[in-house]
Amino acid sequence: MAKLVMTYIGMKDGMRAYAAMDAEDEALIGDQTNIVCEMVGSKAKATTLQKRSVYKYCDLLANKFNDGGLDMAAVFAVKEVSVDWTTTAVKESIWRPVQKVMFNSESLTKLEKPDIDKVYRVVSKQMSESFRIDQPFPSRYGD
User: Fold this and answer.
1) Segment 84-132, tens digit of pLDDT
2) 93 vs 80 pLDDT, higher one
C-alpha cells in the first residue's frame, strides 16, 4: 500500500487544509501535526447492494412492462416479434445503453456510487414519460 504523509497548513473555506509531504519534507518539518493516509483508490466504487438493486430494479421494470401488456416490440416499435421482458432484457436493452452513454462503461463494477442513481434517474424519467411506468429503485428497506 502506498502511503501519503500530509501536514496541516492552515484553514481554507472554514476547513482544515493539509498538504502532501515527501520524506525530506517530513524530516524537516518534524513536529507539526501530520496525517498519514493509505491510498486505496481515488473514488468509491458501486457497492454490492447497489449492483443487486440494479438487477432487482430491472426485474421489477420487466414485470411492469409485462403486466401492462408492453412487450419488447411495443417498447422498441419493432413489430416482427413479440417477446416478454426479462431482467436480463431490461438490463441489456435499457439500463446498459444509458449507462454506456453516460459513463462510457458497460460494467456495473466500473461505476462509482453516485453513478447508479444517475443512470436510474434517466431510465426512470424515460419510462415515466414514454410509458407512464413509475418503478421506484429498490432499497434494503423495501420501499
Assistant:
1) 899 999 999 999 999 999 999 999 888 888 999 999 999 999 999 988 9
2) 93
In sequence order, which residues have a C-beta less than 8 Å from that of residue 117 and are 6 or more positions away?
137
Question: Domains of the chain: which residue ranges?
Answer: 3-38, 48-131
- Rounded distance between C-alpha atoms, residue 10 and residue 24, angstroms: 21
Q: Is the dihedral of CA 134, 136, 142, 143 positive or negative?
A: negative
Helix extents (H) in the chain: 23-29, 48-67, 72-76, 87-90, 96-103, 113-131
Q: b/e per residue, 8-38, with b = 16+ CB within 10 A?
A: eeeeeeeeeebeebeeeeeeeeeeeeeeeee
79 HSE (CA, 13 A, CB side): 0
**Listed residue (133, 131, 103) closest to 118, CA to CA:** 103
pLDDT value of residue 35: 53
Whether this model's pTM surpasses 0.70: no
